From TrEMBL:
<dbReference type="Pfam" id="PF14008">
    <property type="entry name" value="Metallophos_C"/>
</dbReference>
<dbReference type="InterPro" id="IPR004843">
    <property type="entry name" value="Calcineurin-like_PHP"/>
</dbReference>
<dbReference type="InterPro" id="IPR039331">
    <property type="entry name" value="PAPs-like"/>
</dbReference>
<keyword id="KW-0732">Signal</keyword>
<dbReference type="GO" id="GO:0003993">
    <property type="term" value="F:acid phosphatase activity"/>
</dbReference>
<keyword id="KW-0325">Glycoprotein</keyword>
<dbReference type="InterPro" id="IPR025733">
    <property type="entry name" value="PAPs_C"/>
</dbReference>
<feature type="domain" description="Calcineurin-like phosphoesterase">
    <location>
        <begin position="12"/>
        <end position="195"/>
    </location>
</feature>
<protein>
    <recommendedName>
        <fullName>Acid phosphatase</fullName>
    </recommendedName>
</protein>
<dbReference type="InterPro" id="IPR041792">
    <property type="entry name" value="MPP_PAP"/>
</dbReference>
<dbReference type="Pfam" id="PF00149">
    <property type="entry name" value="Metallophos"/>
</dbReference>
<dbReference type="InterPro" id="IPR029052">
    <property type="entry name" value="Metallo-depent_PP-like"/>
</dbReference>
<feature type="domain" description="Purple acid phosphatase C-terminal">
    <location>
        <begin position="210"/>
        <end position="267"/>
    </location>
</feature>
Length: 288
């Protein structure tokens, strides 16, 4: 599986796509901010043409970012109108239909991997449709069969970049316990135009049974990179760098997956950061 967020349609986007095209993968996962159309609808068309060679050959599974909202007071009251029409995801299929294109889940590799797509810009607190759906979706996973559970969300819940600092805190407060309780293995986010990898975290502290948090918002958008970081680097932040690139999650077997991050500046085989992720389902200490 390949992951890149905040893709846009610049020279950097092209380089990111060339890198992705050069690699072997089953599916591309994109945690929001696709075309940067921002109300100018022809940009959705040019984006479609730009990604078509890849998106027609592999599954592209996306969730939405702020650039997809496109809501105008009085003129266009419906948020996500173009996004929902152009990037319809299988939210009404599978074992737990969500009823909304803005959050959904699906299984990969015969059910060995469960992917949850969350919506940063739709209600998420306890009692809302998204929260209730997530609770049911996670409760329905059989971890004897599902080795890995990963989630994608646009706004990072952990972030030591000065850009968008604290923006994901409310959603984290509302939903983090659900993901932790289900022993979700990793959470991937976009929004911040840089790369950052955290250790396993829960409630802002290192926790061996929490997910690994990764920000991969560096696909190549027209707003440029987010280069300013909070100092000192939090203990939970393991690796952070403002460069364009993409990541790869290779599920090797029922217990191990290899995460690698590839900079655009390097040749595709160069790995700038990597981490072996062992499934929390196979960790007895996390399943008492
Ligand atoms: Fe964003």
């Amino acid at each position: 599986m390949r992951r890149t967020g905040d893709l846009g349609q610049t020279g950097w986007t092209k380089t990111t796509l060339q890198h992705i095209a050069a690699a072997d993968y089953d599916m591309l996962l994109l945690p929001g901010d696709l075309s940067y159309a921002d109300f100018f609808q022809p940009r959705w068309d040019s984006y479609g043409r730009l990604v078509e060679p890849l998106a027609s050959a592999r599954l592209w599974m996306v969730t939405q970012g702020n650039h997809e909202i496109e809501k105008v007071p009085l003129l266009e009251p419906r948020a996500f109108k173009a996004y929902n029409a152009r990037w319809r995801m299988p939210y009404d299929a599978g074992a737990s239909p969500s009823g909304s294109n803005l959050y959904y889940s699906f299984d990969v590799a015969g059910g060995a991997v469960h992917v949850v797509m969350l919506g940063s810009y739709t209600d998420y607190v306890a009692g809302t449709a998204q929260y209730e759906w997530l609770q049911g979706d996670l409760a329905g996973i059989d971890r004897r069969k599902t080795a890995f559970v990963v989630a994608l969300v646009h706004v990072p819940w952990y972030n030591s970049n000065k850009a968008h600092q604290g923006e994901g805190d409310d959603m984290r407060d509302a939903m983090e316990a659900l993901l932790y309780g289900a022993r979700v293995d990793a959470v991937f986010a976009g929004h911040v135009h840089a790369y950052e990898r955290f250790t396993r975290v829960y409630d802002d502290r290192e926790d061996p049974c929490g997910p690994v948090y990764v920000t991969i918002g560096d696909g190549g958008n027209r707003e440029g990179l987010a280069e300013k970081y909070v100092d000192p680097q939090p203990k939970t932040s393991v690796f952070r760098e403002a460069s364009f690139g993409h990541g790869r999650l290779q599920v090797v077997n029922a217990t191990h997956a290899l995460w690698t991050w590839h900079r655009n500046d390097d040749d595709e085989p160069v790995i700038a950061d990597h981490l072996w992720i062992s499934s929390l389902a196979s960790n007895p200490a996390c399943n008492k």
